[in-house]
Structure formats: structure tokens, C-alpha cells
Amino acid sequence: MTPEATSALALSLRVACLATLLNAVFGIPLAYVLARRRFRGQTLVDLLVTLPLVLPPTVTGYYLIVLLGRRGWLGSPLYAATGWTVAFTWYAAVIAATVMALPLLVRTARAAIESVDRDLERAAYTLGRPEWRTALEVTLPLARNGILAGLVLAFARALGEFGATLMLAGNIPGKTATVPLAIYSAVQTGETGDALLLVGLLTALSCVVLVVAGRLGARAA
Amino acid sequence: MARLDVSIVKRLPGFTLDARWEARENVVALFAPSGAGKTLTLQCLAGLLRPDDGRIVVDDRVFFDARAGVDLSSQSRRIGYVFQGYALFPHLTVADNVGFGLRNRSRAERHARTGAIIARLGLSGLEGRYPRELSGGQRQRVALGRALAIDPALLLLDEPLSALDLPTRATLRDELRSTLLQCGVPAVLVTHDFAEAYRLGDRIVVYEAGRVIQSAPRSELLWQPASEAVARIMGIRNILHGTVIKASPDRIQLRWRGLTMEAVNSPTQAYLPSSEAPIAFFIRPEYVRLIRKDRGAPDPGHHMNLMSGRVVAEADFGTTVALMIRLDEPGEPAQGEYDLEVEVPRLVYEILEIDRDRHWQLSIHRGSIQVLPA
């Protein structure tokens, strides 16, 4: 394996792991709130979270540039204050992967949470548990398999992210070139060996992920 | 003695609950067919659903008062709620389910209390089992134990027996009755089975389409349904319509199917309809007497409300037989093919050879004809 391929693989794993972690931190509470609360603007939040699932990844990436780029809504004040921008760093790859994976986790986790019998939560309330404790002790443990399946899918999605990453993080070998980007470069420059190796690796990994997610999903149902 | 004052108004899309009742009895049964708002009432009592208006007082604690802006949370009401289907935590053992509400007690105290409850409900040896490994009856006991463990101010039971098969049901019903008596906690239970309401409730509150149509001690309800609607919901048979001849505070004379009949007026309701007014009444099938043909002519002083008719159909219930009788009077029968349903014990059916002898004289004591105020 060439050094480029090795570093792409290491970077991809790091990005996917971090993106999955961020998904867990933000996505699970979001899924809970969407499943169990009714609030103003709920449809909008639902729409925003789901959009990356249907938009071309380059469009999602474009929005991320508008938001976080050096001249972006959030990016420009940050650049003015610190002289640093997230664009074209490996953090950008993490952000892109997180946003692209979020709908998969939120949708799967939400369905799992919604399938938990509400009487169980009501029982916990009458037995003295506040809502947040009930969520931690009853709802989320019972939705565990669905949530884990969602996290596995999110990991897979993060690992394979291409379009949004290319837009926000670029394709800098050794810095932001994840496996999918490295495959693209390798094919472009005719390094068929590297491309083949990475394609095989990614395919195998995706198969494992699908099998695991399927098992978890079946147990959740 | 318990004190329960309940007044709840809750408007939902397509359904309005507007229920008011009071009870001083220990066990109150809310009785109605499904979809009448009984479970909603329990949810309001438990603080799981906020009424739009009303007031809920349990003993001396105000749980909810719309005008005073009082609304205690579910967590602080100390309600033991036995859900329909029990809602046991499937990921926790029997012991952890029972001890779930004792979190803020010390470990030792929690252990002792859980153990005592488990022993009292006959669940010893099952502490480590999960709900899916229990029988229906055991699940019901765990749910009851979990609710009783917190030493509740009020116990709510939503169709506590409907998830059980028939033989278990009768046993558990009597067991539940003695547990309720023993623990002395005021309880409100919901059921669509009148026998269950009667067996378990000291007071029965009858719901129809979100409203209370009668609230009475159980024996009063059995003998004096407040209206035809209550009688129908209770599943009372032989609900008939006639015309008033004359009403006094203790007797009502009425005309039905060309016959003049005499009924006792309801002592608590002293219902005085004007003459020629339509009137609804019912005759319990097991209170109609067949007059034996081997005992000579009927004595008019002994037998009241005499009539005669023919058995046109019968239904065999094993220990009793229901006879559908069409009166000899001309005109349309009151209930489709027949006028009266009469229930006789099988022994009587056999002694009188009713299978062979189809024409009978009947008598109904005036105390067995109950009028239903309009």
C-alpha cells in the first residue's frame, strides 16, 4: 500500500469515528425530541435534518461553505476573530460527514424511540421519575438496538462521504483526502492498484456494516 | 375513609370529556363501554394529561384546580397506576420493577420494602425473572406490587383483568378485591365488564360518551339504574316501553301490550310522570315466575301481573335456560319475535318439562318491575 493510501485510510477512520460520536451526542437527543415532543418549528427541524439525505451531496457541501467558509455566515466572524477557518482542514471533513450521516441516525433512532410503549414512560412518571431520567432509564435502553443500528449506518455513511467533503474540505493528500477522495484521485492519475485496494476495503467494510445494522434492526423490531 | 372529588373537562379533537363525580367509598369503579373517557379520567387523575378545566381533590390534597392554577406533577402526586397491559419495564427484573418507585429511599429500606411487597403478593422466587418470563396473572401482581410499593395516596387500575384468560380472571378478581380491602388505599378502577365493576367497586360511576350518567353505591345501581341509557349499558335485558296510567310515590300503574301492570316506584327517585306519559321499565328475566299447572288456579292475591304466552325460542346457558316468550295478546311483540325473556334454572326447566310444554302463565311481582326515569 502506498503512503497516500495508508494515510487516506487512517484519516477516513478518524473522520468516521468522530462523525459517529458527534452524531450520537447531537442526533440521539434530537431523535428523542422529534419523537416525543410537539413544538413550533418541528417540521422545519425535521426537514433540515433530513434534507442531506435527498440533496446531491455537492449541494449540501455548498450550503456548508456558505455557512462555514472563510466568507460564510459563521465562518467570517470566526476568521475575523481568530484568523482561522475550518474550510480545507480535516475538521471540515468531520463536519461534512456528520451532517451527511445525521439523517440516517435520526430517522432510525426516532422510529425506535417512537415504538417504545408510552405507558412505560407514563408508569415511570407516576413512580417519581422526571422526563430526562425516564428517557435515560426507560426509553433509550428500550430503543437501544434501533439506536445502535442507526449509529452503525451513520458510521458507514461517514466513511463513504465524498461530495460534501470535497466541497468543504477539498482533496488535499495526507490532510483531507479520505478514502473515497483518494480512490477518485487514484483513478484519475491511473494508479489502478491503489484504487482497487481501497475499493475492495470500502466494499468489505460496508458489507460488514450492513450485516451488523440488519441484525440490530431485526432485534429491535 | 377516602374522599374523592373529581370534576374534569377535557376537549380533544372529536371527543369531549366532561365528567363530575364524588366518592367517599374506598373503591370506585368507572364502568362504560370502551371509548367513553374512562382511561382519560385516569390519566387526568394521575397528572399525565392536563384537563382544560375542573378540580381534582384526593383526601385533603388538591391535585388540580384550574381556577386556582394548581396542577401537581405526576411525579409528586404519589399515584399507583396499574396500566392496561401492565406496562412492566421489559428490561428490568421483577424486583427492579417493584422497586422502581423507591429510588430515593436508602438501599436497605428499598430492599426491605421490595421484599415485603413481593412476599405479600405471592411472587417469592420470581425476583430475578423478567416480565416476558411471567404468566399473565403474575404480571398483574407485579404491576400491582410496583404501584403499591410507593405507598400511594391513590391507586388507579385500568382494566386490571382484561389481559387475562377467563379462568385466571375470576381468581384474580377475588384476589384483587381482598388486596384492595387489605391495603386500604383508595382506588379507582376502570372496566367495561359490569360483573367486574360490581364485584370490585363500592361505588359505580357509569360513563357514556364522555359524561357521567349515574354515580351510585353498587347495590343502588343494580336495582335502580337512573335511566334507560344506564340500563342499556349495564346490559339489562327486557327493557320495555309502556304508558303511565297512574303514578303515586310508592306505586306506578302502567299499560303495556294491552295489559295493566303494577310496579313499585323507585324509593330514592320518587318519580311521578303524568298519566298517559310514555315510560320505560325493565323486568329481570330471572324474576319472572312460571305458574305451575299442577297447583290449581292462580291466587290473584299471591300472583301479580298475570299474563300468558308461548315459548317461541330458547337459549341454553348450561346452568340456566333463557325462554323467549310471545304473549297471547294480539299485536306486534315488544322485542322482535318475542315479548319477554325469562330465565329459569335448568332444574326447573326439567321438572316442568318445558321442552315439551310450551304454553305458560306468568306472574311478575310488582317489586320486580323497575321503572326507568326518562
> How would you sum up the major sheet of chain A?
none
Oligomeric state, counting identical vs distinct chains: heterodimer
Helix content of chain B: 10-25%
Amino-to-carboxy terminus distance of chain A: 42 Å
Which range does the strand content of chain A fall in?
under 5%
Q: CATH superfamily of chain A, please?
A: MetI-like
User: What is the CATH third-level topology name of chain A?
Assistant: MetI-like fold
Q: Which range best describes the helical content of chain A: under 10%, 10-25%, 25-40%, 40-55%, 55-70% or over 70%?
A: over 70%
Identify the overall geometry of chain A. Answer: globular
Please describe the biggest sheet of chain B, giving its number of strands, its sense, and whether it closes into a barrel. 6 strands, mixed
Rg for CA atoms of chain B? 25 Å
How much of the sequence of chain B is in beta strands?
25-35%
- The number of domains of chain B is 3
The parts of chain A where pLDDT drops under 50 for at least 5 residues are none
Decide which structural class fits the backbone of chain B.
alpha+beta
Q: How large is the count of helical segments of chain B?
A: 10
CATH top level class name of the largest domain in chain B = Alpha Beta
Descriptors for this entry?
heterodimer; A: 221 residues; mainly alpha; MetI-like fold; B: 374 residues; alpha+beta; Rossmann fold; SH3 type barrels; five-stranded antiparallel beta sheet; 34% strand
Overview in brief:
The complex is a heterodimer of chains A (221) and B (374). Chain A is mainly alpha-helical and 221 residues long.
Question: How does the SSE layout of this entry go?
Answer:
The complex is a heterodimer of chains A (221) and B (374).
Chain A (H helix, E strand, L loop, with lengths): L2 H34 L5 H13 L2 H12 L6 H8 L7 H25 L3 H9 L4 H12 L1 H16 L3 H7 L9 H10 L3 H29 L1
Helix pairs in contact in A: 1-5, 1-8, 2-5, 3-9, 5-8, 5-9, 6-7, 8-11, 10-11
Chain B lengths: L3 E9 L2 E9 L3 E5 L6 H9 L6 E6 L2 E5 L4 E2 L2 H4 L1 E4 L11 H5 L8 H14 L15 H14 L4 E5 L7 H18 L3 E5 L2 H7 L2 E6 L2 E7 H6 L4 H6 L5 E9 L3 E6 L2 E6 L13 E6 L5 E2 L15 E11 L3 E8 L12 E6 H6 L7 E5 L5 E4 L2
Parallel strand pairs in B: 3-9, 3-10, 7-8, 8-9
Antiparallel strand pairs in B: 1-2, 1-4, 4-5, 5-6, 10-11, 12-13, 12-15, 13-14, 15-21, 16-20, 17-18, 17-20, 18-19
